Amino acid sequence: MLLKIGELAKRIGLTIRALHHYEEIGLVQPSSRTASGYRLYNKDDVARLHRVQALRGLGLSLAETRDMLNGDGADLRQLIRQQMCAIDRQIADARDLRERLTVLEEKLTDEKEPDLDEWLSTLRLMATQRQYFSAEEIAIFQKRAAQNDFKQQWPKLVAAVRSLMENDISATDAQAKKLALEWIDLCKTSMGDDPRFFAKLSNMHRTDFSAQAITGIDGELLDFILQALHEIRCDIFANYLDQGELQHYRKHGQKNMQEWLTAFAHTRQLMESKLSLDHPDTIQLMRHWQWLIADTWGMNPATHAKVQTAHEQHPEMLAGSGYTTDMKQFVEQGMLALMVSDMSANLSASMSDHAAR
Fold it and tell me: What is the dihedral of CA 111, 115, 117, 119, to 10 degrees?
């Protein structure tokens, strides 16, 4: 019996996108195709998929799973350690399940019928989140969820964005910009101002097929939101930058948006580590900021001044990014430390060169 990719995906609980990815990385290949080019999977392909799911369940990465199935082998001790980690996660999931059952029992005691589908989806999503977030981060998210109704708001917003995409509405459209602003507001409400949370969440939705299937959020949808946000920023910058400056930003700004989010997350982590401003890690991060600024807006200090003015006049452009006042102060001080470090290095080099003569 041969199965087309859509039927196979439905039966085993994976997305078609996941099966395409498995094929691209050489993990599971369809054994044949129809005359029209449709992928066909036989029982051996299905059996291999079962082995993939089993190994993934033990905590192995896709690359490790592929190597194991292709006979390249894997260190047995490493596999055992991974199994132990998987068991630890199962214990954590069991504890979490018990807490959720307690909530369910309370609802039944109060004669409030729980939404079973939503409850089960929440459990699946939390199990996925544990691979990306610490227990403390998940606790913070749950606390916010209990205080707000964004659990009901997110599915509606995701569906609205997806509808625009499916109807070929451009990210430059006013509807897309409106939803992008709602997206940022909801992010801020549900996640606070920690850019590390945003970065991890973005990574989860871009790479984890389970999270994509549960939430409906994937890399394509996130890119649509980022493009709409970029267009909003371009509209604002048009009032401050000349045509050449704006053209440079249009070309480089959007591609760097994810890079900026990562930089904000790294900066927050460094701030909490309380390293000195002249520490090598701080200096290295400031050099990255320096490069990002130049790549995004060019090398002209006059342009940078205009950008700063725009941000001061329109703080909403940085809403939901995690770039807060204390981070701004840290970066300004870090840039001064970088300048002093470079001046000191240049002076030392000059003195060494003079002595050599």
Answer: -80
Q: How far is residue 318's CA from residue 200's CA, in Å, rounded to a whole number?
A: 18
Picking from 21, 43, 69, the residue at the C-terminal end of a domain is: 69
Whether residues 7 and 94 fall in one domain: no
In this structure, the answer to whether residues 60 and 87 fall within a common structural domain is no
Looking at the structure, tell me whether residues 192 and 270 fall in a common domain. Answer: yes
Query: Shortest CA distance to 268 belongs to which of 211, 201, 194?
Result: 194
Q: Are residues 246 and 342 in the same domain?
A: yes
Q: Each residue of 301-349: pLDDT tens digit?
A: 999 999 999 999 998 888 878 888 899 999 999 999 999 888 877 766 6
Q: How much is the average pLDDT of 237-246?
A: 96
129 close to 204: Cβ distance less than 8 angstroms: yes
Residue with tokens 């101002």: 193
The encoded tokens of residue 114 equal 């729980």
Neighbours of 330 (CB within 10 A): 19
- How far is C-alpha 271 from the chain's CA centre? 21
Residue 136: give the domain boundaries.
81-143
Residues 152 and 258 both lie in one domain:
yes
Token pair listed for 302: 């006059």
DSSP three-state, residue 173: coil
pTM to 2 decimal places = 0.63
Please provide the DSSP assignment of 95-152 as one string. HHHHHHHHHHHHHHHTT----HHHHHHHHHHHHHHTTTS-HHHHHHHHHHHHHS-HHH
Residue type, 269: Q
Size of the chain in residues: 357
Q: Is residue 76 part of a domain?
A: no
Q: Cα(8)–Cα(38) distance, rounded to whole angstroms? A: 12
Asked if the structure places residue 228 within a domain, the reply is yes
Q: Has residue 357 been placed in a domain?
A: no
Q: How many domains does the chain have?
A: 3
Q: Among 33, 67, 41, 40, which residue's Cα sits nearest to residue 52?
A: 67
* pLDDT given at position 175: 96
Question: Is residue 58 located within the same domain as residue 10?
Answer: yes
